[in-house]
């Protein structure tokens, strides 16, 4: 699968770095392709290093104003003119989306796929890794939106909150497998 991962490009505390390393190894050793923002700094670098070391492929999608931090040696690298084009291309290349810890850019990217799923314009699975309770507040807010009728589709059908990267990866793999079976033509 091509798995898009949204996450921070910042250098962060070890409580975020180590789970990212573990997830990267699992993603790469599972034979998946990482589709990500293409940066060679911060958690993005940790993720790409781990995926590549574990035998996974790298597909970066960066933007013109960030070419100074683009990762060398990727299997594929695309440079877009702006952030809107970048987001659209990241989602277009992905079979599934996983959100790791990040800032406003990560949140912005994830809400795009969430909105598409809400309107049934995408059926790509979306999982959020809630490392060290980082997304507890987001989960509470989305649960409130769901409970008070702001979401036309129940939250559990829109996105999955996982405690670990492995749990998120298992979820998107099973989701894709189930979807493939449902879409398979029936003999008759």
Q: Mind sketching the topology for me?
A:
Elements: E1 2-6, H1 14-29, E2 33-36, H2 42-53, E3 57-63, E4 76-80, H3 83-93, E5 96-99, H4 104-118, E6 126-129, H5 136-147, H6 155-158, E7 160-162, H7 165-183
Parallel strand pairs: 1-2, 1-5, 2-3, 3-4, 5-6, 6-7
Please describe what this structure looks like.
By secondary structure, the protein is of the alpha/beta class. The protein has a single domain, classed as Rossmann fold, CATH 3.40.50.450. The chain contains seven helices and seven strands. The chain has helices at 14-29, 42-53, 83-93, 104-118, 136-147, 155-158, 165-183, and strands spanning 2-6, 33-36, 57-63, 76-80, 96-99, 126-129, 160-162. Strands 4-3-2-1-5-6-7 form a seven-stranded parallel sheet, sandwiched between helices. Helix 2 links the parallel strand 2 (33-36) and strand 3 (57-63). The model has no long low-confidence stretch (mean pLDDT 94).
